[in-house]
Write a structure and sequence with these properties.
P-loop_NTPase, 4-stranded antiparallel beta sheet, ATP binding, Rossmann fold, 6-stranded mixed beta sheet, globular, alpha/beta, 7 helices, disordered N terminus, cell division
Length: about 230
């Protein structure tokens, strides 16, 4: 597989995209995107609205399929992945959405615990791990609350805790601070930097210029579905 694409020879990459194109009917959302992301790298994905940032992340967390090209995640070819392997791969990917996507009928504790419940963890394991995460995101006092009673910043903290509950190797965040005030955004980014420090590979899609220039991380830029700067 790899020798078909000699321009990408990074053997340390946990994510490899080879000439990836995504079409929605006549609309070209991604156009010939090739990108390597190293294990334990933290990078930003940026570009104007409609550049393809969210589409690229959707392909990586298996919410959509590519039209052309290949994607390797942890050495697995997504186009050839047997259905029985999908749950395993998805458990290795944590996703943080701009609109949180918390389940309104479940408490904060239960929203975070869902990942472990699906994986078959025991009640004791869930209680210990979720308790730790609630303390980490400073939401222990809201464990029994429902999402609609929380502020946007609080909901995003819960969403981050849920994303990392299964100890994923890869965390993908789509505009995680886009609807938050400056202080809440700072907290969320500190949480993501902490996840990275513990060994996860983190990709953050954002168009926030202040955020992009507040830290020295690789910035990959998309424009009209094409990578115009790999940030190398």
């Amino acid at each position: 597989m790899d020798n078909q694409y000699p321009e990408l020879e990074n053997k340390n990459a946990i994510i490899r995209m080879f000439h990836v194109t995504k079409r929605y009917g006549a609309q070209l959302a991604l156009d010939d995107v090739s990108l390597d992301v190293e294990a334990n790298e933290f990078l930003f994905l940026t570009g104007p609205s409609g550049a393809g940032k969210s589409t690229l992340l959707k392909l990586l967390y298996l919410a959509d399929s590519i039209s052309e090209g290949q994607i390797l995640l942890k050495g697995m070819n997504l186009s050839r992945l047997p259905k029985k392997r999908l749950p395993f791969l998805r458990r290795n990917i944590g996703v943080v959405f701009q609109d949180y996507k918390l389940i309104p009928t479940r408490t904060v504790f239960d929203n975070i615990a869902l990942v472990m419940e699906v994986a078959g963890a025991s009640a004791k394991q869930i209680k210990r791990k979720v308790g730790y995460l609630l303390r980490t995101v400073d939401m222990e006092h809201k464990a029994g609350a429902f999402p609609q009673s929380l502020s946007g910043g609080e909901q995003q903290r819960v969403a981050v805790a849920r994303a990392i509950c299964g100890d994923p190797d890869i965390v993908l965040a789509d505009e995680p601070t886009g609807s938050l005030d400056a202080e809440s955004a700072k907290v969320i980014m500190e949480l993501l930097f902490g996840i990275h420090a513990r060994g996860a590979t983190v990709m953050v899609a954002t168009h926030d210029e202040a955020l992009l220039h507040s830290t020295r991380r690789r910035i990959v830029t998309l424009k009209q579905g094409r990578v115009v700067d790999l940030g190398l």
